[in-house]
Every structure is written in structure tokens, then in C-alpha cells.
């Protein structure tokens, strides 16, 4: 019964069950078992209250890119907190960390994305993208041009804006009416939805859904298309190579702004600074968070290209948008140090040339013909795999079985964090993971899949 379980819980677990409302959590289920209390971490490992050492195959929530225990990041926060713990950038003031970070971000973003707006989370960055792209068209004298197009199964955060823009039906069901004038198109999920088409053909088909949608609602009503380079929280869906060039062509043809959500893909995850570099996308505006500070403090940014920035700055009026903690000096100092470390240690090049390809190869070689694994996709240090009941027909397990959660729990119990997204398992380890740790990770994935069988 609940009472007997509860008494076996540690005091932190008991208080957690009593006072803490967890995000994205079935609280009934959680409290039967008790939340696992994470106490400390180092490198790519975390430890729980019982002393278990666990390889963090998710870098927290796709964010602790430099791994845990980086003294330089703690020191950067400490020093900034003692010098200037807070000041705003609203009313004709600025400060060193915000300015230097804006310049550092502009030094790594592609194309002309050189104006940086700060927020505290990916969701706030996405809300900023939504408001700014619509405002852009209003400034162009076309306020009716306000439809945002996104994709099914996209994740863009859980504010009312991010929830509305995202394509997760479970989220749309809760929390009341969504933001209007948002349209969605299919996702480019070749393995799951491509049938017997080639990847190339399916990629074009999925991209042309954008053109169909634009024509259906009228090109002169569309503000922007918003998408992740690789859908992360949707299960790590890597689009076919034909997809992004076609999306780019369609956006140009109808003069639609292209907004790329780099919250997961940004800062080295795909083996380049941004997913946009990996897929050769030229965004007009881009959101980023997570890896920006390696998850050590909350901070996010929106990089704005010349087209939008010039229009905005040609106005003699306020841009009425911002957050108390936009460009927070301590978070900015930590992000600045994060980018420093990434450059000095050549983290992006390591992922691109060394650990990324090794991870992709080792993961596939660890699971040759594993009966549960229908397909593996990924690039750099991000990967997703489809768990299937039958490989030949790609038949999924009945959803009542929750095969993903069974696998995830085996991982948890065997020293590995691997996340389940429905029947897909996803991995996104810290970018500092070395080859020995990649071997360990892949062996554990194999073991846990065997236990799930
Ligand atoms: N956009 C993408 C692509 C994300 O993956 C996430 C979070 O996972 C968000 C936005 C929202 O970020 P946050 O949770 O920091 O609000």
C-alpha cells in the first residue's frame, strides 16, 4: 500500500511527495515509487541518495553540454555575483556581461544573426520569436500577416505561447484556449511515416506540406515558419537531407520568415555550433537556451538577423517586450565562460570529427539486429531509436504496454539515464563525453534493451 511504501522513503522523498509539484509528471505514479534524489555530479556522471553512480545519457535535459563540476563556471558566477549581481538593461543602461555575451553569441551564429535579445528559458525565447516575427510584419504595414506555421510533434516550450506553437496534443489538451493563428504541418519522420518512399522523396513531400499550407491560408497571411533543425523532445527526428533545402526554397518563394528553434541543437549538439550549420539553413531569427550556459544557470537568447533587426530599429518607438532578468549578469557571465571553454577546448570540432561519429557508429554496432530496435537515427551527440514489436512490419507495441518507460526504468536501475518519448528512446550525452564513456553508454543501452525484451 501507499503507506508502507512511503515509510521506506527517505525524508527528502517524503517531503518531495508532500510539497513539490513536479513538471511533466504523473504525480500519483511518482509518489508510489518516490522521486530519485540526485545529490551530486561530476563529468558525465550523477549520483543518487543511495550512492548509485549513473551515466547521464541526457546531459540533464539536453543542456549540461560541458559536463558537471566545471570549476570555471562556478568561479565566473561567484565573481560576477560579488561585482554586480543584478542590473537591468531596460532603461538606457547596459552592463559588461550582457554586452560581451551578445558579441560572443554573434561570433558563432550563422549568417547575419548578429543582434541578440536575452531571455531566461527556451520558452521565453520562443515567445519572443512569436511576438517579434508578428511585430515585424505589423511594422511592414501588414498586421494581418500573423499566421505562424509549425509542425506536428514539435516542442517549443510550455508557456502559453510555446504550448500553442508546439505540436504536442497532450499539451494542447490542458490549460485552456491556445494562442490563435497558428497552423501546423506534418513532421519529416521518414521511418515512422514514410511508408515505402525513399528518404529523399519523403523529405520533399514533408517539406511541400509547407507550401500547401501557405497556399491554403494565403501567402500574404503568413508571418513565419518555425521549426527545430532536428526535433528533439519529439523523439529525435532527423529530417531527410532533401527536407531543409526545400523548406528554405519555399520560405524564399513566399517571402515567409524562417525561424529556427536551436534550443537543443544549438551549441555543438549536432557537431556544428548550430543545427542550422549542419543542415545549411539560413534563418531570419533563431532561439537558443540550454547549452548556452551548459545548463549551469537559466539563460536563453534570440539571435535576430538584419532583415528583422533593421526594420525594428528604423522605428522611433519602444519594442514593448522583455523580462526582468533579460541578460542577467550572473547568468550571462556563466554563458560567456561556457562559450570561452567551448572555443578553447574545441568542443564543437571534437563532436564533429571525433566523439560524434564514434558515438553514432558505436551505438549502431552495439545493437546489430537487436529485435527491439527498428531504427536508429542521429548525428553528432544526439540520437533516437524506435522500439518495435516487429522489425519487418515496423509494428509498434500496444501503447498500453509503455515499452519506452519499461526500458527507461531498466536504464535507471542499471546506471544509465536514457529518456523515453513514447516508444522512442533518446540520447543526448554531455558533449565532453570521451570514447571510453561512449563505450560504457552503448554497453548499458544494449543491456537495458536486453532486459526490456
Ligand atoms: N524549444 C525547444 C526545441 C526545446 O527543446 C525546449 C525545451 O526542451 C524549449 C523550446 C523550451 O525550453 P525551456 O524548457 O527552457 O523553456
Automatic annotation (TrEMBL):
Keyword list, A-Z: Aminotransferase, Pyridoxal phosphate, Transferase
InterPro entries the record matches: Aminotrans_3, Aminotrans_3_PPA_site, PyrdxlP-dep_Trfase, PyrdxlP-dep_Trfase_major, PyrdxlP-dep_Trfase_small
GO molecular-function terms, A-Z: transaminase activity
Cross-referenced CDD domains: OAT_like
Domain of life the protein comes from: Bacteria
Cofactors that this protein relies on: pyridoxal 5'-phosphate
Family that this chain belongs to: Belongs to the class-III pyridoxal-phosphate-dependent aminotransferase family.
Protein name listed in UniProt: Aspartate aminotransferase family protein
Amino acid at each position: 500500500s501507499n503507506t508502507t511504501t512511503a515509510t521506506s522513503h527517505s525524508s527528502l522523498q517524503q517531503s518531495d511527495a508532500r510539497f513539490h509539484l513536479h513538471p511533466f509528471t504523473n504525480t500519483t505514479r511518482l509518489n508510489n515509487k518516490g522521486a530519485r534524489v540526485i545529490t551530486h555530479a561530476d563529468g558525465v556522471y550523477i549520483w543518487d541518495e543511495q550512492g548509485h553512480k549513473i551515466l547521464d545519457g541526457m546531459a540533464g535535459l539536453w543542456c549540461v553540454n560541458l559536463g558537471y563540476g566545471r570549476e570555471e563556471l562556478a568561479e565566473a558566477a561567484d565573481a560576477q555575483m560579488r561585482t554586480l549581481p543584478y542590473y537591468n538593461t531596460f532603461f538606457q543602461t547596459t552592463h559588461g556581461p550582457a554586452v560581451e555575451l551578445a558579441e560572443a553569441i554573434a561570433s558563432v551564429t550563422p549568417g547575419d544573426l548578429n543582434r541578440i535579445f536575452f531571455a531566461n528559458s527556451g520558452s521565453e525565447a520562443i515567445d519572443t520569436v512569436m511576438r517579434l516575427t508578428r511585430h515585424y510584419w505589423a511594422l511592414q504595414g501588414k498586421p494581418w500577416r500573423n499566421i505562424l506555421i509549425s509542425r506536428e510533434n514539435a516542442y517549443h516550450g510550455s508557456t502559453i505561447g510555446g504550448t500553442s506553437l508546439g505540436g504536442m496534443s497532450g499539451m494542447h489538451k490542458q490549460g485552456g484556449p491556445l494562442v490563435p493563428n497558428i497552423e501546423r504541418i506534418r513532421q519529416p519522420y521518414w521511418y515512422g511515416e514514410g511508408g515505402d518512399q525513399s528518404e529523399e522523396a519523403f523529405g520533399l513531400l514533408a517539406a511541400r506540406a509547407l507550401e500547401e499550407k501557405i497556399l491554403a491560408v494565403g501567402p500574404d497571411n503568413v508571418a513565419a515558419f518555425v521549426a527545430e533543425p532536428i526535433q528533439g523532445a519529439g523523439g529525435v527526428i532527423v529530417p531527410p537531407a532533401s527536407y531543409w533545402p526545400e523548406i528554405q526554397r519555399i520560405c524564399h518563394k513566399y517571402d515567409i520568415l524562417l525561424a529556427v528553434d536551436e534550443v537543443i541543437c544549438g551549441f555543438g549538439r549536432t557537431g556544428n555550433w548550430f543545427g542550422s550549420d549542419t543542415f545549411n539553413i539560413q534563418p531570419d531569427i533563431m532561439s537558443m537556451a540550454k547549452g548556452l550556459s551548459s545548463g549551469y544557470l537559466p539563460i536563453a537568447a534570440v539571435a535576430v538577423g538584419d532583415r528583422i533587426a533593421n526594420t525594428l530599429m528604423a522605428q522611433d518607438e519602444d519594442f514593448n517586450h522583455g523580462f526582468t532578468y533579460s541578460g542577467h549578469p550572473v547568468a550571462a557571465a556563466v554563458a560567456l565562460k561556457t562559450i570561452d571553454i567551448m572555443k578553447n577546448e574545441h568542443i564543437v570540432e571534437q563532436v564533429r570529427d571525433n566523439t560524434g561519429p564514434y558515438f553514432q557508429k558505436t551505438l549502431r554496432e552495439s545493437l546489430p539486429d537487436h529485435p527491439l530496435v527498428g531504427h536508429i537515427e542521429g548525428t553528432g551527440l544526439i540520437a533516437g531509436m524506435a522500439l518495435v514489436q516487429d522489425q519487418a512490419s515496423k509494428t509498434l507495441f500496444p501503447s498500453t504496454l509503455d515499452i519506452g518507460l519499461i526500458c527507461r526504468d531498466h536504464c535507471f536501475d542499471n546506471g544509465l539515464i536514457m529518456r523515453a518519448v513514447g516508444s522512442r528512446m533518446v540520447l543526448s550525452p554531455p558533449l565532453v563525453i570521451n570514447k571510453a564513456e561512449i563505450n560504457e553508454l552503448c554497453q548499458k543501452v544494449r543491456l537495458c534493451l536486453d532486459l526490456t525484451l
